[in-house]
Amino acid sequence: QQQVKQSPQSLIVQKGGISIINCAYENTAFDYFPWYQQFPGKGPALLIAIRPDVSEKKEGRFTISFNKSAKQFSLHIMDSQPGDSATYFCAASRSGGGADGLTFGKGTHLIIQP
Amino acid sequence: EPEVTQTPSHQVTQMGQEVILRCVPISNHLYFYWYRQILGQKVEFLVSFYNNEISEKSEIFDDQFSVERPDGSNFTLKIRSTKLEDSAMYFCASSQLPGPYEQYFGPGTRLTVT
Questions:
Q1: Contact: A99, B35; criterion CB under 8 Å
Q2: How does pLDDT run across A22-71, given as a tens digit for each residue?
Q3: CB B110 within 8 A of CB B89
Q4: pLDDT tens digit sequence for B40-89
Q5: Which residue of A has its CA nearest to B42?
Q6: Residue B23 near residue B6, CB atoms below 8 Å
Q7: Among A49, A100, A107, whose Cβ lies nearest the Cβ of B102?
Q8: What distance in Å separates the CA atoms of residue A56 and residue A75, rounded to the nearest whole number?
Q9: Nearest to A98 among B41, B50, B104 (CB)
Q10: A100 and B99 in contact by Cβ < 8 A?
């Protein structure tokens, strides 16, 4: 019940295209959904996050769409650029009152072709 | 921009040896975390720490692991008797407020157990 399922495992998108990565969760107690970007040899970097009181959040070219009833959320990267090539992880956490750890998806390896 | 730092970047140790991984969280953050990432796999939560005590831990964080904040700036993860399967990237993270809230990751320590 703690799992976060992420797809696809890998994705190739042409420069200027839209990259879409999907995640699904099971634990209805989750109420915080961040996306992290990771470049080789680096730590995960927080990209954008959403809470379930909104259905969409946009920051620049990055948008999270959230469907509470379906327990799904997705990351859309508009006008994808070669510099966006990285591994993307979705994650989820709950408001437990303490320092709750993040449950991560397995990651999507995104390649943007010039 | 403040960032989480970790030392060493790479540690090689023999099976059965003790290792200590060090982290300096962002200075005004109060909540600290350790995660690990086995090569090619997802990031996994190990433990969270607040007010000098463990807040939450996963099933991975068994008696071989311990955490400590020995002074006002460092946060350490100790593995008492390393096993081959402990080989992984270990990431420290910190947040200003309790979960769910933005967690910022360090660059990681690659631990290789031979």
A1: no
A2: 999 999 989 899 999 999 888 999 999 998 889 999 999 999 999 999 99
A3: yes
A4: 888 999 999 998 999 999 999 999 999 999 887 899 999 999 999 999 99
A5: A106
A6: yes
A7: A49
A8: 10
A9: B50
A10: yes
